[in-house]
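In this supplementary section we document a worked example of the pipeline. Step one takes a protein sequence of length 194 as its only input; no multiple sequence alignment statistics are reported here. Step two produces a three-dimensional model, which step three serialises into structure tokens for compact storage. The input and output of this example are shown verbatim.
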Amino acid sequence: MSQLGVGPVREVEAAFRATPRPQFLPPAQRRWAGLDRPLPIGHGQTNSQPSTVRRMLELLSVRRGSLVLDVGAGSGWTTALLACLVGPEGRVVGVELEPALAAWGQANLAATDRSWARIETARPGVLGWPDEQPYDRILVSAEAGVVPGELLAQLGTRGAMVLPVAGQLLRLRKTVGTRVVVERFGQCRFVPLR
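The serialised model returned by step three reads:
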């Protein structure tokens, strides 16, 4: 399988087993954790539909030891899943716009004992977390109207970014030089990227 193929399915499945969704949901939502649908986590945000998260992680094809940016970290579930995929030799930086969600997500993440991952509160007017760029992989769990140039600039050469744009799930791959390959993987729906 190629470096950016639609996989690794087994690794993603193992990450899901090691990172139960209920511990990343508000208590009132935990009984619905097994449903394949987005669930509200407050502040107008959701914990994304598990099948969509699985698909995005498979498309992202995260390798152990990678440096990954998780935009729209919310409750910390995707950050924890990514931390499982990169392993302790990698690093994951989650970014969340809502300070209360960022604090809750960090507490949820801390309970997984994956110290190589963290969640930061987004800075006003700054998309992503440019301090630690370039990233090998970027996952965006909020929908943009167009591909955000600010995030693309944080992606390293031979890196990949998976994100929803204008109702479509995209994977962008940065090749040597300035070339970007864009692939489309069907329709999707997310809260807006702000």
